[in-house]
Amino acid sequence: MTSQLNVDTIADKAGSGPVGLTKQSAAKVWLRSTDAAVLTQSFNVSGGTDNGAGNYTYAFTNSFNYSADHGGIGAMAGPDNAYFRKAANNGPAGSLQVRGVTAPGTGGGPAGVDTECSLTIHGDLA
């Protein structure tokens, strides 16, 4: 037997909040920003800070317990050899620091590169 459910909105029992997910996960943070950390689209992100070449900090609206146990995926729209990485220093509580860097060249390590950023994080709110 097949079923079809057509709805415009799904809300909690009170009708004023999100529904609880059972045995499922949804993105808790997502963003898209310019090469100066200016948000163009976001969810659960209150703002971005440009800390220097390819070094950005994004503050969460609701604290997010980000650690190695939480999945995050990001992309940078820079040169062909640019890549995204989570900074060793995660930044202040309630935020995440990310880096846009170029692949190491001859005789040097990765260099910071200003670039657009897209980021999604799954896990638990603090």
How would you sum up this structure, described in words?
This protein is an all-beta fold. It has one domain. It has no helices and 8 strands. The strands form 2 sheets. A 4-stranded antiparallel sheet has the order 2-1-8-5, with no helix packed on it. A 4-stranded antiparallel sheet has the order 3-4-7-6, with no helix packed on it. A hairpin with a 2-residue loop joins strand 3 and strand 4. The N and C termini lie far apart (41 Å).
Q: Nearest-angstrom radius of gyration? A: 18 Å
What fraction strand? 35-45%
Determine the N-to-C terminus distance.
41 Å
* Tally of separate helices: 0
Going across the biggest sheet, name each strand in turn: 2-1-8-5
Mean pLDDT: 76
H-E order: EEEEEEEE
Number of strands: 8
Question: What's the number of structural domains?
Answer: 1
Structural class computed from helices and strand pairing:
mainly beta
Helicity, in percent?
Answer: under 10%
Largest sheet: 4 strands, antiparallel
Low-confidence stretches: none
Shape: elongated
